Known about the structure:
The protein is of the alpha/beta class and about 300 residues long. Strands 3-2-1-4-5-6-7-8 form an 8-stranded mixed beta sheet, with helices on both faces. Helix 3 crosses helix 4 and helix 4 runs parallel beside helix 6.
Amino acid sequence: MICADRVVIVTGAGRGLGRAHALAFAAAGAKVVVNDIGTSDRGEGADATPADEVVAEIRAAGGQAITNHDDCASWEGGAAMVRAAVEAFGDLHVVVNNAGIVRDRMFVSSEAHEWDAVMRVHVMGHVCVSRAATNYWREQIKKGRTLDVRILNTSSGAGLQGSIGQTAYSAAKGAIASMTLVQAAELGRYGITVNAIAPAARTRMTEAAFADMMKKPESGFDAMDPANVSPLLVWLGSAQSAGVTGRMFETQGGRITVFEGWHPGPTVDSGARWAPEDVDAAVRPLLAAARPAAPVYGT
C-alpha cells in the first residue's frame, strides 16, 4: 500500500470528491482525518453526519480515521485540525485542501456577500490548514527530522480558463493555482512538495452547474465518478511522488493531463518608450502569432 502509515487530512471530506479522496487514502493504508462541517453546497448550515459516515465506512473496511468538524477557513480551525491529526495518529504527512462552495452568478448580478463567502472557503480554506501544517513541519525540522510531506490543492478548469456564471468561483480557483506555484517555490527547502489538481467529476456543485455533462450513464464507464480522480491524489500524497512539485494536473475519468500554465509568447521590443499611436501596428502581429487561449467554459 503506497500510503501505509501516512497521516492525511482531507478537508470537505463528507461528500463528493473529498469523500472519494478520504476512502482512497484509507484503502492505500493512510490514517485519515475526515474534515467536514456539513454545510450545503452554498456553505450554509452544519451537519456532522456526512463526515461521521465516511469515518464509519473507513473503519468498517479495516482502516483508521477520525472525524473533524473544525472550520478549515479559519486560522484557529486550521491549527486545531493539525493538532487533531497529531494527537490521534502521532504525525502529519499530507494535507488535501478540497473543501469548497459555489455561489453561481453572472458577474453583473454578483453581490459582495457571495464574493466574500466563495473567496473565504476556497482561498482561506487552503491557506489556513496549509499554514498550520507548515508550522508543525518546520518544528519537526528543528527537532532533526527530514521531511517527505505534501500539500495538495484543488483548483478547477474554471480557475485555469474561466467559466460563464462562475466569476467568483473561477477567481478563487485561479488564486489557488497561483498560490500552488509560490508555495512550491518557497517550501521546497523544507522537504514540502506542493501540487494541485483541476478535477472534473460529479459533485453537488457540478451537478447543479453542468447537469447534462455530469449525468451518470446507464451503463459502461462512469467518467464523472469522483472516485476516478482520487488515485492521482493518493499517488501525489505518497513517497513515490517525491520531487514532483509546483505542478497542476487536470484529471477526468481515466485521463491525466499535466497542465501547462502561462508562458511568454510573441514579443516585440522597441528599446524605448512606445508612442500610443504606434502600439496597434506592433501588437496586431503579436496577437496573430500567439497561440489562442483555451475557450471559457460555457462559451
